[in-house]
Each structure stands twice: as C-alpha cells, then as structure tokens.
User: Which sequence fits this backbone?
C-alpha cells in the first residue's frame, strides 16, 4: 500500500526530514539569540564565517569534527545492535588512560611502534569500559542506559583519583601528566602537508582525522559487509528472530558494546596525541554526549556521521569565533544549539513525519493510477 | 564521647542538607517513571529551576517569586519532555539527554547576557532566599541531654524547603498508594492498555505525572540556588539529578526505600567531606573519589542483581500506541 504510515521516499527520510528538524532547532536557537538582544541572521553569518571563513578555521572545524566522528560512530554501532550507549563520555575518558599509559611509559620507543600501541591502548581501554555494561546487559539483564550513565560517573571518579594521586607530574598543582615524548605525538596535518611541499595554515588538525575516516570505512564494512554486522543488525531489529536464526543476542550485545567503546576511546587519540600531548582532567569535554546527536543526525550511517560531525565541529569552532565577535553570546550558546539539535533531530524526529507522509502519499497514489 | 556525639550531630545535619534535593528529585522521578516515562532529565530540570529561581529572586528580591519561577520553568521543561515522548512518541532517553544539554548551556548563556557575570547570577540577599528557621523552643530544649541537642542541631535550623522535602515523602507515599490518581499512575506504567480499556486516557495520566515531576524538580532546583547557596552557578547541580535517579532505582521505584537510598547517598557524601585526608584505622586514607563513586557502584551492582533485584515499571520507555 503506497503512503502507509511512516513510508517515505528515501531522499525525504534521509535528506528532507533531518534538514527540517535541523531548521527547527536553529529557529529556536535564533529565538534565543533574539532574546539576548542580537540579530539571528548576523549571528548565523558570523558563525559560518568563523567555521569556514578562513583556512585556519576549517582546520579547527575538522579537528573538532574528528572527536565527533569517533563518538558518533560509537553511538551508531551500538544503535545498530538496538543498544543505547550513552557512556561514550566515560569510554573516551578511559581511552585517554590507555593512550596516556602507552605514551608515558613506552614513549621512548620509535613512533612506528608507539603510535599503533597507543591506538590499541585507546581502543582496548574504551572497549573494556563499555564491555562491562554490555556484559551486565547481556548476562544480568541490567539496563544499558542506566549502567552506562553510572559508568560515566565511575570513570570520572577513577580518572580524577588517578590524575590527582598517581599520574600527576610531580611538583605541580594542576592534575595533569607530564608532556608525552614527541615520538608519541600524532603528526599535524599542516606538518604532513609540508612534507609534500604544500602550505596549509597551522591548526590542531592531525592524523587522527585520517584515522577517523578509516574507522568510518571499517564501520561501514563491518555493519553492511560482514556476517557479524548482519547478525548485529538482526539482533537490533528483532531479537526473537535472531534467536530463531541461531544468533546469540548476548554475544552480539557484548561485541557491539566493545566496538562502540573502542571507537569512543579512540577519540582520545585526537585530543591527547594530536593536540594536548598530555592527559588532563575532563579532556572529554562532553564530546561523548554530542556523539548521540551526531549519530542521530547522521542516521547511523558513516557518511551521515561525517557530515553531522562536520556540522557540529563547525558549531564548536564558529561558536567560539561568534562569542568573540558578539560578547553577549557566550560559548555556552553552542551547547544550547547542540541540545536543541538532539531534541529536534532525535526526540522530536516524528514531529514532521505525519505531515510529510500525507504530502508524499498523494502523488504516489496518483502515480499508481496511470492516466 | 561527647566529641563523637558532636560529630554524629554534625554528620546528621549535613546529611539532611545534602539529602533534601535528592529526596525531592527522587520523588519527582518516581512520578514520571511510575507512569512509564523514563526521566534522565531530573538533572536538567533541577538545573533549569535553579537558574530560573535565582534570576527571578535576584530581580524581584523575593524568595517566593524565585521558587515560583523555578517550579514553572521545571514544569515547562517537563512538558517539553511530555510533548516529545508522549505526544510524538519520541525516544525518552534522547529527549531527556537533549533537555539536560540545552539547560546546561542555557543557564550560563542567559546569566551572561542578563547579569553580565560569567555564567552566574548575582549574589542574593537574605530576603531573596530561604534562610534557616529556628523551630519553636529549640534553645529552651537544648539542655535536655541527647534529645535536646538533636532537636536544636539536627531538626531545627534548616530552611523551609528541607521541611517541605520531609513532608513530601509521606505525601508522595500516600498519593501513590492510597489515592485513585496513584492507582492509575501505577497502572499506566505497568499496563497502559488496561488503563485505556477502563476509559482513562493514558496520555492525560502521563502528562499529569510529568507535571508533578516538574513541580517537585522545581522545588529541588530552587533549593540549590535560593536556599542552600545564594546564587546560580554553572553546573551547580553537579550530577545530583543522576544520583537521585540512581536512588530511585536503588529504592526499586518505591517512595520510602528511595528516600532511604537518598539518605544513604547523602550520608556517604557528608562522610566524604569529613574524611578528606583523615586516616582511618585499618583502612588508611580512603580516597574521596572512592566514596563519591560508591552510590553509582552500588546501583550498578543492584541492577545486575548482585544485591537484590530492581524491577522497573513494566511499560517504562515504551510509547503508548492506542490503535493496534
């Protein structure tokens, strides 16, 4: 039956609907800007200018986007298994511990050894931190949402303890480790461009961006081109059917959560090895939560996630430029816009659907009866 | 011995102060969750209420107006949650997450623009906030051994919202277990189609439950900014909304056990402040983070069925679709 409820052409479902939701979020954000006594179009212009207007800005935008690609992929891969992993924040934090341990204690080894080990450390620590809630969900039936929330707090407590008492660089007040050895730094893109004689403006954008893109490809391969990915999607869509087909949901849940945590953990590569070069308190800065918005906007597909991640990266970078140009608008406004995007693209995603379904059902019904 | 008694008094006193917002928020979450709607936005509603209350109190110089504004804002947020989850059948966790993030940014943004003080509201005078109330005869009864000091130090001297929280618990228990509204509330969270068949609107019931959630969260949030402290500061609820949610689950979605969990968590918090850097016999110095992590760890263990079993309302998280 054409035009059944929720049946929309693919371009509407993947293009128009997210665009409408995004527009609604920005309209509300515009109303808040108006409330602050500034002009919304002017603010939007400054935001876009600040995010893409000059070469350095693009570098920063992509640098922030790198974090969001990792955390967005993490949320998406769990989503495909029907799981809601809101523990990306904690998993990224633990991933940072894995990175830092390698960089601090094996940093004197050559880069070709240290960097792969650091990537492994990030994935391993993040993965294990997600595997525990996964195991608890699969074997003990405790709800993944609640356990991952709790694990965020546990991660924060653990990392604070380690940074304040164990890993802190002796003789300083701030809870930070010493700076990593340079062999453990990920090369920055402008430095890499210089190897080929290209002149790119300096920014914290680094090789982690390329690793993130590789991860996108791997996630796509895993979900749509491997048996495990297929089994994962079956479990996510219909657990009973999965059991009937001889798939163990418990095993899939644990695999999905481990991979999800590993991806979230790898966010630490960008922040720690690419930019900060040391482990510091709260370096995850909410990126793990924004991953939810990125996955929702990107419809859990790697291509969509890259686009959504660039959008959020632009918000971050453009937002800080905006707050500089319009002092009444603080950087916190970016957080508001992120929340609004999650609200409209996620929780309210069905708001425009009935209207669109009605709109697109009519031509389809007409086409079914040739003149 | 008297030192130990004094310590116990002080610990009880700070436990009550710390438990108040937890108790109110846990009771708020109870209504929402028992009606079948997941609420991870207790944090956001409290933070929003804290900001609204502090702003209104700063402008009008009245604590009551502040409280009213806090309650109204929290109720408005609850209605947004309802619109997304009940009317539009959106994902309840996503909606809660979104509200938490919006509010975390909105408070500091508006505070910056309105008051020009990086992410905070102006300091409130005593008339614009709820200050401690000395209960009758507190000083007269003090000389009575044991009971006198307990009355004067622990029970008397809190602000009005502490007593509101204390009264809220029996009130909530009565509403949930002894009224028609409470029966329907519990039914709508367990088996909404049965409630629907009985001719009661599931949608209306859930909206009503969310309004109560907003009301209680509003009081809890106002407590932070116009009673416990004297201004709104960025992230001042500091995860207490999630802690209240943990307490609610720890209390198996029932009022009295949830309050007990709140008191336990608050006590752990009070002890942690006391124990900072103090070595204990046998254990040595316990890191404060270990005590801070305790409530979350306990909740995880409970949910995993290692200590008892927490069974959620059956229909929680599932949007109700009338026609099937």
Assistant:
């Amino acid at each position: 039956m054409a035009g059944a409820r929720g049946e929309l052409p693919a371009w509407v479902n993947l293009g128009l609907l997210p665009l409408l939701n995004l527009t609604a979020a920005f309209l509300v954000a515009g109303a808040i800007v108006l409330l602050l006594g500034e002009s919304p179009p002017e603010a939007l212009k400054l935001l876009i200018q600040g995010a893409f207007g000059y070469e350095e800005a693009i570098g920063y935008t992509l640098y922030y986007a790198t974090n969001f690609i990792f955390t967005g992929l993490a949320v998406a891969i769990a989503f495909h298994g029907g799981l809601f992993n809101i523990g990306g924040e904690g998993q990224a934090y633990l991933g940072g511990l894995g990175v830092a341990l390698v960089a601090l204690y094996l940093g004197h080894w050559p880069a070709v050894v240290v960097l792969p080990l650091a990537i492994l450390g990030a994935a391993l620590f993040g993965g294990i931190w997600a595997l525990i809630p996964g195991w608890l969900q699969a074997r003990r039936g405790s709800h993944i949402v609640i356990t991952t929330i709790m694990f965020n707090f546990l991660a924060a407590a653990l990392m604070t303890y380690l940074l304040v008492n164990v890993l802190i660089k002796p003789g300083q007040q701030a809870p930070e480790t010493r700076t990593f050895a340079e062999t453990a730094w990920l090369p920055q893109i402008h430095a890499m461009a210089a190897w080929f004689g290209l002149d790119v403006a300096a920014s914290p954008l680094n090789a982690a961006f390329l690793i993130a893109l590789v991860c996108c490809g791997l996630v796509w391969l895993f979900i749509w081109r491997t048996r495990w990915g297929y089994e994962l999607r079956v479990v996510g869509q219909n657990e009973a059917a999965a059991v009937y087909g001889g798939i163990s949901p418990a095993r899939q849940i644990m695999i999905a959560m481990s991979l999800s945590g590993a991806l979230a953990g790898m966010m630490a590569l960008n922040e720690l090895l690419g930019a900060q070069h040391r482990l510091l308190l709260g370096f995850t800065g909410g990126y793990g939560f924004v991953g939810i918005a990125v996955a929702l906007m990107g419809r859990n597909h790697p291509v969509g996630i890259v686009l959504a991640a660039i959008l959020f990266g632009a918000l971050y970078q453009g937002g800080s430029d905006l707050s500089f140009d319009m002092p009444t608008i603080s950087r916190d406004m970016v957080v508001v816009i992120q929340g609004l995007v999650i609200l409209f693209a996620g929780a309210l995603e069905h708001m425009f659907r009935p209207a669109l379904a009605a709109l697109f059902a009519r031509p389809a019904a007409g086409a079914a009866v040739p003149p | 011995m008297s030192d130990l008694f004094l310590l116990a008094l002080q610990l009880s006193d700070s436990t009550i102060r710390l438990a108040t917002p937890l108790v109110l928020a846990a009771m708020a979450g109870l209504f929402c969750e028992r009606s079948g709607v997941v609420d991870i936005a207790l944090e956001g509603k409290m933070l929003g209420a804290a900001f609204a209350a502090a702003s209104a109190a700063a402008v009008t110089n009245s604590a009551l107006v502040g409280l009213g504004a806090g309650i109204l804002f929290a109720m408005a947020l609850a209605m947004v949650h309802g619109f997304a989850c009940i009317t539009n059948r959106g994902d309840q966790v996503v909606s809660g997450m979104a509200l938490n993030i919006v509010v975390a940014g909105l408070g500091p943004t508006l505070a910056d623009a309105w008051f020009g003080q990086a992410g905070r509201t102006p300091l409130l005078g005593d008339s614009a906030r709820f200050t401690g109330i000395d209960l009758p005869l507190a000083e007269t009864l003090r000389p009575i051994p044991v009971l006198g000091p307990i009355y004067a130090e622990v029970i008397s001297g809190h602000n009005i919202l502490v007593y509101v929280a204390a009264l809220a618990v029996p009130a909530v228990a009565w509403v949930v277990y002894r009224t028609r509204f409470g029966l329907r509330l519990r039914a709508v969270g367990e088996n909404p189609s049965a409630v629907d068949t009985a001719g009661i609107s599931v949608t209306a019931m859930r909206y009503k439950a969310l309004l109560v959630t907003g009301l209680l969260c509003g009081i809890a949030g106002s407590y932070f900014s116009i009673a416990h402290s004297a201004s709104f500061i960025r992230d001042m609820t500091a995860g207490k909304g999630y802690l209240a949610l943990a307490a609610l689950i720890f209390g198996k979605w029932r009022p009295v056990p949830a309050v007990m969990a709140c008191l336990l968590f608050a006590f752990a918090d009070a002890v942690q402040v006391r124990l900072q850097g103090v070595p204990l016999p046998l254990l040595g110095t316990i890191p404060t983070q270990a005590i801070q992590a305790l409530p979350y760890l306990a909740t995880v263990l409970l949910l995993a069925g290692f200590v008892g079993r927490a069974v959620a309302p059956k229909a929680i998280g599932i949007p109700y679709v009338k026609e099937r």
